[in-house]
Amino acid sequence: MSKHNIQVGVLTLGMIATNCYFVFDADRIDENGKKHVVVFDPADAGKRIFEELSKNDLVVDLILLTHGHFDHIMGIPELKELTGAKVGCYEKEAAICSDPHLNLSVSFGNNFGIKPDVTYKDGDIIEAAGLSFKLIATPGHTSGGCCYYIEDDNVLISGDTLFEESVGRSDFPTSSTSELVRSVREKLFVLPDETIVYPGHGDITTIGHEKEYNPYA
């Protein structure tokens, strides 16, 4: 049984309609009447994210990345400056975040890169905003892609690893189709069927639905 009144909000932003999620425990309110959130993949609109959260009395404690592609990370400088929150990712993705060729920003006329403040290992438990997120390494879309799992609440932030009845592309630098399929089958499909999947693009789904209907995995 869940210990939290977990809420997952989403802002869909940018040229590729990237889902930026913010996750919080609605019952956990600080002495100033604020709720604290973890933001995932702030797309390209750090200021807008900050303004939307602030007007709802939400404070950013941490920014986590599922992977380092430009459409998931370009909002970081603004959001980090406005909130003071640190940025974390899987240790094997840090190089992609900082390299404009690997993060694909150079292909869209930008020479953009960021350096995460903290990196994590596969299986690490990340404590923030009163919640616990388990990092699950899911290479394939990128070599250091990952998902974040809230076990108590059966919530998975899947980035571009797993979509509704699809998976992420595997034709980019550091991608691997075989690794991606293995990640989905061996790392994600072992989670409970009722786990709600919040992907980097498109609509939410469940592990049970994907096990039955996903043609790629």
TrEMBL record:
Q: According to its UniProt record, what is one Pfam family this protein matches?
A: Lactamase_B
Q: Which organism is it from?
A: Butyrivibrio hungatei
Keywords attached to this entry: Hydrolase, Metal-binding, Zinc
Matching Gene3D superfamilies: Ribonuclease Z/Hydroxyacylglutathione hydrolase-like
Has the keyword Chaperone been applied to this entry? no
Q: Name one GO molecular function term.
A: metal ion binding
Respond yes or no to whether keyword Oxidoreductase is given for this record: no
The entry's protein name is Glyoxylase, beta-lactamase superfamily II
